[in-house]
Specification:
This protein has 229 residues and is of the alpha/beta class. The chain has helices at 6-18, 29-34, 53-60, 72-85, 120-132, 152-158; strands at 43-47, 64-68, 90-92, 106-112, 134-145, 160-162, 169-173, 179-183, 195-204, 219-227. The strands form 2 sheets. It has a 7-stranded mixed sheet with strand order 3-2-1-4-5-10-9, sandwiched between helices. Helix 1 packs across helix 4 (72-85). The structure holds S-adenosylmethionine. S-adenosylmethionine (SAM) is lined by residues 5, 8, 12, 23, 47-50, 53-54, 68-71, 74, 95-96, 112-114, 117.
Length: 229
C-alpha cells in the first residue's frame, strides 16, 4: 500500500536529485542566532531535515544531530555531506508519524518548512510528538507560513478547505492531495501552551526560487520557544 506521504516523497526525491540545495545552502538564521543558547553538545532532532542545511550547521557547532525525513534521496545527499565534513549525523528515513526515537527526549527540536505541508490532523499528531520528545528546557525552532502568504488568496478561492480542528489556521487540499496550511496572523504560539516564547516574528519573506521554479515569497512565521516544564 502506498503510504499517505508517498506522492510527496516521489516529488521530493526527484526534486532533490535535480537540486540538492532545493531549500537553500545556508542554515536558517534563527538556528544560527539561537544556537549559542543551546546546551553544549545538545541533542537536536531535525524533523523534515531535507538535505541537511540546518542539521549540518548544528553538527558543525558540535551538537549531536538526528535528522528524519521520508525522502531517501534527501538523506543520501545529507549523509554524503556529513561524511565529507567529518560531522556525523544520524538519519532515519521516515515520517515523524513512524519515528521511534532512540532516546527519551531531545534538547532541541527543529521543524523548518514542514507545517505548511500538513493537514490539521497531521499538525495535531506532530504537536503530540513534540510534547513527548521534549523536556523542561528543550528548545523548539520552527518556520511556518501565515495567511499573509501571497498564495493564500488564490488557494482559498479555488481549493477545498479542510476543517481546522480547533487550530488557528486555514488548510486546503488540491485535487492531487497536496496540502497547504496557513496560520492566522500572530496566532501560532497558541498551539504551544507551556512553552516560553523567545522569538516570534511574522513578515513577508525574501524572494527565492526552488531549483528552476518561479520566484516566490512566503508569509513567513519564525518561532523559537523554550519548554517551561
Ligand atoms: C520544505 S522541505 C524543508 C527541508 C528542510 N527542513 C529545510 O529547511 O531545508 C520539507 C521537508 O519535509 C519532509 N517531510 C514531508 N513530510 C514529512 C513527514 N511527514 N515527516 C517528516 N518529514 C516530512 C520533506 O521530505 C521535505 O524534505
Amino acid at each position: 500500500m502506498r503510504s499517505r506521504y508517498a506522492w510527496q516523497m516521489e516529488d521530493y526525491d526527484l526534486a532533490y536529485r535535480k537540486s540538492p540545495d532545493l531549500f537553500g545552502e545556508c542554515a536558517e538564521e534563527i538556528l544560527l542566532d539561537f544556537e549559542p543558547r543551546f546546551p553544549r553538545h545538545a541533542l537536536m532532532l531535525d524533523i523534515g531535515c531535507g538535505t541537511g542545511r540546518n542539521s549540518l550547521a548544528a553538527a558543525a557547532r558540535a551538537h549531536r544531530v538526528l535528522g528524519i525525513d521520508p525522502s531517501a534521496q534527501a538523506l543520501e545527499i545529507l549523509q554524503a555531506r556529513s561524511e565529507a565534513s567529518g560531522h556525523l549525523i544520524e538519519t532515519h528515513q521516515c515520517s515523524f508519524d513512524e519515528f521511534h526515537p532512540p532516546v527519551q527526549s531531545f534538547d532541541v527540536i527543529c521543524i523548518f518548512g514542514l507545517l505548511q505541508m500538513l493537514d490539521p490532523a497531521g499538525i495535531l499528531r506532530l504537536l503530540g510528538k513534540i510534547d513527548s520528545w521534549s523536556h523542561a528546557g528543550s528548545f523548539l525552532l520552527l518556520v511556518a507560513w501565515n495567511t499573509g502568504d501571497p498564495k493564500f488568496g488564490h488557494l482559498s478561492e479555488c481549493r477545498q478547505e479542510i476543517p481546522s480542528r480547533g487550530l488557528p489556521l486555514r488548510s486546503f487540499r488540491s485535487s492531487d492531495g497536496a496540502i497547504r496550511s496557513f496560520f492566522l496572523p500572530g496566532r501560532l504560539p497558541e498551539i504551544f501552551p507551556g512553552w516560553e516564547n523567545i522569538h516570534h516574528e511574522e513578515k513577508l519573506g525574501p524572494w527565492h526560487r526552488h531549483g528552476d521554479s518561479e520566484p516566490e515569497r512566503h508569509g513567513r512565521i519564525e518561532y523559537v520557544a523554550r519548554r517551561e516544564k
